[in-house]
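Field log, afternoon session.

UNIT: design team B
ACTIVITY: writing a sequence onto a fixed backbone
BACKBONE:
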């Protein structure tokens, strides 16, 4: 992460060791206090979430530890209280509590979608998962002015998109379409960008 001034003058650079050759492609964001958040993978292939202050000093680093293959954080946002939300994909059981305690998540298929909330102080908020018996990917997240969350991605087969243990909201994929971007405007309308394989009606 490199910080430049408004006049493009150099301020500082923060470098984090990683085994992920594509780690620099992950999004970063700045909260209302000018703190910076970014994601990546450490040398052990675990997902890390790092908070820097405006001077480039590390405030905290949080790690998501799994039993095997890695967790991929893909999208990151903050709400009006500067709580952090990460959406992505995981491939095996893992502890999604980056702080004190354990919040073990079990995956359903080849890969599943996760939505993780981390409080501004770095403590655990909650985690929600979505997945069927095939490949499911979490790609992007958006938070509107009312702090409603929208996530997008792609999935195969049938997936229950109700994260509760009580209700069911099964959806079935018929192609390899994917949502790659989500934005909301000042009146709450939602704009979605992505790709599709087969023709779709408007």
């Amino acid at each position: 992460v490199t910080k430049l001034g408004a006049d493009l003058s150099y301020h500082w650079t923060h470098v984090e060791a990683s085994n992920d050759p594509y780690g620099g492609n992950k999004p970063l964001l700045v909260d209302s206090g000018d703190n910076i958040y970014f994601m990546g993978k450490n040398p052990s292939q675990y997902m890390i979430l790092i908070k820097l202050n405006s001077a480039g000093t590390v405030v905290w680093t949080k790690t998501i530890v799994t039993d095997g293959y890695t967790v991929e954080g893909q999208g990151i946002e903050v709400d009006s209280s500067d709580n952090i939300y990460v959406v992505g994909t995981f491939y095996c059981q893992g502890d999604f509590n980056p702080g004190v305690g354990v919040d073990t998540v079990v995956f359903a298929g080849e890969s599943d979608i996760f939505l993780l909330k981390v409080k501004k102080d770095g403590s655990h908020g909650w985690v929600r998962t979505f997945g069927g018996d095939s490949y499911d990917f979490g790609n992007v997240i958006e938070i509107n002015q009312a702090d409603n969350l929208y996530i997008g991605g792609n999935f195969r087969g049938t997936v229950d998109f109700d994260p509760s243990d009580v209700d069911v909201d099964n959806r079935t994929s018929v192609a390899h379409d994917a949502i790659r971007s989500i934005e909301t405007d000042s009146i709450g309308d939602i704009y979605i960008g992505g790709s599709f394989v087969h023709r779709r009606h408007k």
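LOG NOTE: The chain is about 0% helix and 50% strand.
NEXT ACTIVITY: expression trials, pending approval
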